[in-house]
């Protein structure tokens, strides 16, 4: 049965999509059948693996999900493209429990096809995000190593705990990832200490450094492994992938 990760943070610009794309790619490069699902209306994850957004999001439709799955240039990595139609999110919110059941049904229908499913969620506490959490087995939270890193995280943790309580216990904390890490800055070290002291063992040992390759790769429709395979960013996501596999 697949492990399903929702990658979430209410704050934008923290490396959420970068993590979704490159963790997915690292898992696939390790020989694991992996599906990336883009539910962020910005559709950056879709573009980063070389595809265009869909007209309507497959996760809220009736069509079997496998009919919307596309191959990528990375072997063993497939993608369900996002949609820029904000009406899709409105439909999800209005449908409530029915939409949540459909979303989970779509994921359940492909759990035997993939070993890992990674969902790139919107940078806000939308109905789509909460629905993804209810259907996932694990939640992964990227936290940027800057002053406002902890802003909103407490609220996000509250939402996650509510989902864990309200569901059948399928969702667990997969881990917290420190991103945009600059070891030369005292502030970075202070935030790392604060996050590790507060959250303990759920924080990944590996961190993702600031690396221009991670910023440039999506503009070429590539993962960091295609764009700059010897970069610090590629190494960091390889190490993160190994840590994720060890936590299985």
TrEMBL record:
Q: Which residues form a coiled coil?
A: none
Q: Write down the Gene3D superfamilies for this protein, in alphabetical order.
A: P-loop containing nucleotide triphosphate hydrolases
Checking PANTHER family in the record gives: P-LOOP CONTAINING NUCLEOSIDE TRIPHOSPHATE HYDROLASE, PARA FAMILY PROTEIN CT_582
Checking InterPro entries in the record gives: AAA_dom, DNA_Partitioning_ATPase, P-loop_NTPase
Q: What is this protein called?
A: Chromosome segregation ATPase
- Identify the species of origin: Neorhodopirellula lusitana
Q: Which segments constitute the AAA domain?
A: 3-171
List the top taxonomic levels of the source: Bacteria, Pseudomonadati, Planctomycetota, Planctomycetia, Pirellulales
């Amino acid at each position: 049965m697949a492990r399903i990760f929702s990658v979430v943070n209410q704050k934008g610009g923290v490396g959420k999509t970068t993590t979704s794309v490159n963790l997915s790619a690292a898992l696939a490069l390790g020989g694991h059948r992996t599906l990336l699902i883009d539910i962020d209306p910005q559709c950056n994850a879709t573009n980063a693996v070389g595809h265009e957004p869909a007209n309507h999001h497959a996760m809220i439709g009736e069509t079997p999900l496998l009919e919307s799955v596309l191959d990528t240039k990375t072997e063993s990595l497939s993608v369900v493209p996002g949609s820029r139609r904000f009406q899709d999110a409105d439909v999800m919110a209005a449908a409530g429990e029915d939409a949540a059941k459909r979303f989970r049904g779509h994921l359940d229908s492909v759990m035997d096809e993939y070993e890992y499913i990674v969902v790139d969620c919107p940078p806000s506490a939308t109905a789509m995000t909460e629905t993804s959490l209810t259907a996932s087995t694990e939640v992964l939270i990227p936290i940027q190593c800057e002053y406002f890193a902890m802003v909103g995280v407490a609220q996000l943790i509250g939402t996650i705990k509510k989902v864990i309580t309200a569901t059948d216990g399928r969702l667990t904390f997969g881990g917290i990832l420190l991103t945009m890490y600059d070891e030369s800055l005292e502030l970075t070290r202070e935030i790392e200490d604060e996050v590790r002291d507060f959250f303990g063992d759920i924080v990944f040992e590996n961190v993702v450094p600031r690396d221009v390759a991670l910023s440039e790769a999506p503009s070429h429709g590539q993962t960091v492994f295609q764009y700059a395979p010897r970069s610090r960013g590629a190494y960091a996501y390889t190490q993160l992938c190994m840590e994720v596999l060890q936590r299985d």
